[in-house]
Specification:
By secondary structure, the protein is mainly alpha-helical. About 75% of the residues lie in helices and about 0% in strands. InterPro entries: DUF6545, MAB_1171c-like.
Length: about 400
Amino acid sequence: MEPAATLRDFSISFWIPTAVLGIALVIKLPTIIRLWRDPLLRAVGGLLLLACAVFVFCSPSTIARVNRLTGVSNISAPWCYSLLTAFCGSCLLLIITWRNGPDRSAVTRRARRWVLSVYSGVIGVLWLLFLLADVPVERLRDLDTYYATTPFMREEILLYLGAHALACLITARLLWNWVRAEGLDAWLRWGLMLLGAGYVLNLIFDAAKLAAVGARWVGGDLDWLSTDLAPPVAALSAILIAVGFILPHAGQYASDRWRVRLAHRELRPLYLLMRASAGEGVPRVLRATPELRLTRRETFIRDVLLPLARHLDTALGARAYEAALSLGHPPERARALASAVTILDAVEAKARMPEPPATVTAPDTTDLLQEIGPVSRALRRPDEIAAVRARAAADPAESVAAHE
């Protein structure tokens, strides 16, 4: 089987990377609009928008439509080359802004002006060369190789490929240096790695195009590199770049949501105990964000613990802590188990005597209110609590002797 036929069977539709890039742009768009003054967000938005435009206008169906609407044969060529060149410039502007942050030094401003002037000049030369070239035959898929030896069009093809390769090489190198830096968030590191892989694939795209064009110069025929290999490589590159932009944002969002849901679930045992102690119905809210549900659960637990504090037995808490240590629990776990024992005892004491004597002073509950998470996790192990409670109920002297 010929390589060209194999690649056609596994080609990636131009609209798949367009959809993925569009999703990335939609995800980023609210933040870009809200923080429009941030040059980094503007650079990300511009790059994603240009990347979408490249795949929309470089699809064969759109190329044919643009040629028909303008009445100029192959006018889509300089238009697509211009979009690709603008995308290259956006890559470099993004890296300059991303690496330097809000730095407004003369070096940063000079680098941005250099990128804008060079790539704007390249776009202007592309259109000039197209006007000078003679390209009467419309080519939807193989224009680069069909006109590889045509005066002026030959130079135009080399110019856009060279500008694209230079930008991708610089961008990939800077991204690789950044990935190796210390202190990066895991999601950002993975996003940078995907971006770097995407720009490396762009270099493979350029190499395939240049090899096919070079073969035409020496009388060979490697057109399949340009028509069958380069498009799916470019599509896969776009997908990796889009996911690279999405991943840090989506990954951090998913991590935060998971932590909130986990914290909400961990508080369930203590929450149910406090509901039983409160002895009254708790209103349910059907629609609420995970963060709001967690806040409500924490607030309810603390609101019930405050009046319950008058029933807490601090002496029992000290004995329970010593008992937990004697059973081999580490100090942090021992404190949580001791607090769970005292809360269970307080709930039972409240059931026997709802109002303690007026002379009873509530102990300081600052630490307890801050450690409701570990206490709730301890309540999930009733066997451990029962063991600590039994040891603490023994004679205090025996508990201390056992610990020693």
